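Lab meeting minutes (informal)
Scribe: AK
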Amino acid sequence: MKNAILKRAVINALATAVYVIVIASFLFYAPKFFGPDRGDSVLVPIVMLLLLVFSAAFTGSLIFGQPVLWYLDGKKGESLSLIIYTLGVFLVITILALLALYFVV
């Protein structure tokens, strides 16, 4: 069971990291794609807030969705293990990204 929890944690953390990479890449390349003169519209902050709310909900469901379901099913130990492993794997991914930023860029 512990291997299944760790596998699920790695999948959840990697899916979250991939989502963050996609959104960050979009935000980085959007001015080049849409043109720099599109920033004077009220739609820009609206889209940013919509993206923020969607991202919070999406990544929240990736990280906390399965643990909450397991907790509600009475699997409190497995739920806690999954959330700790998921956050641990995500922390390792974050540290690797910071190291890449420091040493590569």
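Next up, CB showed the second protein from the same session:
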Amino acid sequence: MSALVTGTASWRAEVDGAVVALAASRDGRIAVVGAEGSLTLLSADGAVEHTAAVSRGGLAVAWSPHADRIAVGSVDGVDVLDGTGAVIGGHRGGWCSAMAWSVDGTRLAAGVGRTLIVLNPDGTQRWTARRDSTVTGVAWIKSRVATAAYGGVFLHDRSPAVAPDVMAFTGSLLRLSISPNRRWAASGNQDATLHVWGVGRRGDELSMAGYPSKISALEFSPDSSLLASGGGPDVTVWDFTGAGPRGSTPRILQGHQQVVTAVAWSPDGDLLAGSGADGRVAVWRPRRAVPGSPAAAVDLLARDSSATAAGWDGGGRLLAGWADSTVVAHVVVGA
């Protein structure tokens, strides 16, 4: 096992199964989902509060804005749990790796197989919309739900009877990220391209190619000015200030030797974390990087197991998970 290279580990915890996803609530608790379908709730200081077997295989986790509900996506659907980790509802029917709570916490949107499911906080169904292929991304744009599936991004209104608006793309979309200001939608794709649309601005779109592998990590910064993407061992960051990234040179963040598995911005948008299949979790300050010049990590964690998840708590501590069942909370140097 490799030690922390720099910085301070606030705590380290062991959970059930290989970590596939983690998320922090507004009150500091951390929900961790394991590959075998386990859910572990950790306190802000890393103590295990609750464990449960939720499904046959975990894929994703998301806290509600009020920290009173947890959504867990799995290979056979989505479960909604209360704040203690007890299952209260959900939906079965297919693979679910994409979920998003509405800003007010009154609705949960989830891609379950080829279907968009919109649920109430108690897990009961509101409405559904069927797609022709697996739903791989879900996000809210005010009261509308954006879904990523083969063929593009589909913007659904509250009523399934209304045909969705389509931001078309010929190919398989793997990740979807909507800028917090709702001006941009971006997809990471199977064909190793990044595609961007201006939301509500027909014809305002562009593609970025040149990634060495499919793009399976994608996230806008909290202020919508930067988009981090992982399609290989480097993280590429595009500038969305002004008119957008068209014709610009991206920032290249280095620190991994194998493919990046996840990216996550700190709450203040100053730091970016990236986990990798090489067991590393690197941290950068992208705003200080020079476009076109490779930038080194300012902090680094490493273990002898694939790093599978990265996130942040509300206090700005880095949270990271590995396939060896380890979860770490880490105070970044200089943060």
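CB comment: Confidence is low (pLDDT under 50) at residues 1-5.
No objections, moving on.
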